[in-house]
Amino acid sequence: MIEELLPESVVAVEAHSDDTAEGAWEGALYPEEEVFVARAVVKRRREFTVVRLCARRAMEKLGVAPRPVLPGERGAPGWPDGLAGSMTHCDGYAAAALVRTTDLASLGIDAEPHSALPEGVLEAIALPAEEARLRRLTADRPSVHWDRLLFSAKESVYKAWFPLTGRWLDFSEADIEVTVDADGRRGGLRAELLVPGPVVGGRRITVFTGRWTVRRGLVATAVTVPFPTEEEDAN
To answer: Which of 118-141 are b and which e, b meaning 16 or more Cβ less than 10 Å from the residue's Cβ?
Structure first.
């Protein structure tokens, strides 16, 4: 599901609840990782572990020896030198996506249950223009929980932003526009940054782009930050 949202240069590995036998994930953490969840409840330990198993499989597919993935500042995962990546997990699902830093500057992925946001959350995360767009989308395609999709997209934008800047990005600091493909179950994302964006390859980035899909009771989003092309530099 996540893989279809990403360029071919990205390796994505995902796990559904029926892919991991009960207890099969136990004991799979490195000691350095174990300290972060030593006192956590079983659900938290399982999610923390399974998403790292996904990340290690992605490392192997890229020809990189598996190693610990430790939470850093604001919980951002620490990747081996030469790799950029992102992880996500929710009830019954986990995924990790990795890419060589020669192919992409950064990326962010997120998956959420495909259900309406709790009352009051949309008002806390959405700009007025975004709320107006969501109303139009809901009127046209009410089968999609557009509020949850927007939340997921903002999470993916933040996950792509933070490794490039080391700074917090508030929900109100990116204006996200959603486009819909003909089938109505996937489409594109365009996030206009309302604060100075990161400098990538000598050029300041003002817009992040990505993709979304709704499948298997989940909404998933992915944002990628490529390096500027020669044509973009010329402009």
So the answer is: eeeebeebbbeebeebbeebeeee
